[in-house]
Amino acid sequence: MDYLYADIYKKLEEKIKNMEVGEKLPSERAMVQEYGVSRNVLREALVLLSERGLIEIRPGKGSYVTNQQKASLAKHFGSFFETDRESKMKVLEVREVLELAMFEKAALNATEDDIRIMEEIYHQMEENLSMMAGYGNLDLKLHMQIARATHNEIFPILVSTLYESSGQRIVFMEEMFPEAMKSIHRDHLGIIQAIKRRDVKMVRKVGKRHFDVDRYVLLSMDDINGKKDV
Predict the structure, then answer these.
(1) What's the pLDDT at 162?
(2) How far is it, in rounded angstroms, from Cα 172 to Cα 58?
(3) Which among 68, 82, 86, 114 counts the fewest CB atoms within 10 Å?
(4) Which tens digits make up the pLDDT trace of 136-145?
(5) Mean pLDDT score of the chain, rounded to an integer?
(6) What's the whole-model pTM score?
(7) What domains can you pick out in the chain, each with its CATH number?
(8) Do 43 and 28 contact (CB within 8 A), yes or no?
(9) By the 8 A CB rule, do 139 and 126 touch?
(10) pLDDT above 70 covers what percent of the chain?
(11) Dihedral of the CA atoms 223, 129, 191, 92 (nearest 10)?
(12) Beta carbons within 10 angstroms of residue 225's beta carbon
C-alpha cells in the first residue's frame, strides 16, 4: 500500500484501540475532513480494517468496532514475517498452500458480482503492467477479491496478513521475479477464467503454475541470457 493509505490505516487502528466493542466510528465525511484524505483512500483503509477484524462495516449505517479476536490472529501471524529472501520464500510456500485452497473454494462459491469485480481489477492490471508499484497494489486487490469470493471470512484475514505486515507489502511474485512479469500476469487471467467456469481442477492447475518458483527462475534466466545475446 502507499504511504498515505498506510498512514490512515495506522491512525484508525490506534483510534479503535481506545474505543469500546460496538462503538460507532465517525461518519466517512467527518473522517475525510479529519484526516485530509479522499473518500477512496479512507474506504480502502476501512475495508482492510474490516478484513483484519477490527471493525464491521454495515452498509447505510456506518462502521462499528468489533471483537478483536480476528485482529489478534492477524497480528500473531504478522510477527513471523521478515523481509530477507529466505523468509520471503517461506511465505510463498505458505501462500501456495493457502491460496490453492482459496482458489478452489472461490470456484465453487463466487457470485457473478465477485467475478465481475475480478475481471475489472484484471483490466486495471493490464493498464498498469509496466508500473510495478501500481501493479502490485492491484495484485493485492485481486487476491483479496478472490479471498472474498470464497465467502469464508477467514480467507481475507489470512491473505491480507500474508501480504501486509507493519504497513509494508510482502512477497509479490512479480517483485521477486520481475523478468517473468508477463507470465505471472497471464496466470491471473487463467485463475479468473477457471473460477468463472467453476473448474476446480483447472484453477488448481493454474494456481500451482502461478506459485512455481523454479519455473520463474528459469524464465528469468532465459530473459537475462536473451538480453546478453542481443
Answers:
(1) 73
(2) 31
(3) 86
(4) 778 888 999 9
(5) 79
(6) 0.62
(7) 3-67 (1.10.10.10), 72-229 (1.20.120.530)
(8) yes
(9) no
(10) 71
(11) 60
(12) 9
Q: Pull the grid cell for residue 25.
A: 466510528
Extract the C-alpha cell encoding 205: 492447475
pLDDT 10s digits, 60-96: 889 998 865 555 555 555 555 555 566 667 777 888 8
Location of C-alpha cell 484475514: 157
DSSP string, the chain: --HHHHHHHHHHHHHHHTS-TTPBPPPHHHHHHHHT--HHHHHHHHHHHHHTTSEEEETTTEEEE--THHHHHHHHHHTT---SHHHHHHHHHHHHHHHHHHHHHHHHH--HHHHHHHHHHHHHHHHTTT-HHHHHHHHHHHHHHHHHHTT-THHHHHHHHHHEETTEE---HHHH-GGGHHHHHHHHHHHHHHHHTT-HHHHHHHHHHHT-HHHHHHHHHHHHHHHHH-
